[in-house]
Amino acid sequence: MRLVVDLNRCQGYAQCAFLAPDVFALYGEESLVYDPHPGEEPRERLARAVAACPVQAITAEGLDDPGDPSAGAGRGTSRGG
């Protein structure tokens, strides 16, 4: 699985950090930091975090199919922050 957060789109709502704190965190008041390769364990929480993003700033590749590393785009969008 691979995560990409469009930091230009992210507005810092922190929904992702609330729902998947092991993957997303706010640094300071607005800067989002995240693990681009979170592994398999937080998959359900990650899917919720991606879906909760009000501005759809997060893309999660391979979220829909855990067995296929080339699986394309669980287009999760979680407000980066």
Automatic annotation (TrEMBL):
<keyword id="KW-0408">Iron</keyword>
<keyword id="KW-0003">3Fe-4S</keyword>
<dbReference type="InterPro" id="IPR051269">
    <property type="entry name" value="Fe-S_cluster_ET"/>
</dbReference>
<protein>
    <submittedName>
        <fullName>Ferredoxin</fullName>
    </submittedName>
</protein>
<keyword id="KW-0411">Iron-sulfur</keyword>
<dbReference type="Pfam" id="PF13370">
    <property type="entry name" value="Fer4_13"/>
</dbReference>
<keyword id="KW-0249">Electron transport</keyword>
<keyword id="KW-0479">Metal-binding</keyword>
<feature type="region of interest" description="Disordered">
    <location>
        <begin position="59"/>
        <end position="81"/>
    </location>
</feature>
<keyword id="KW-0813">Transport</keyword>
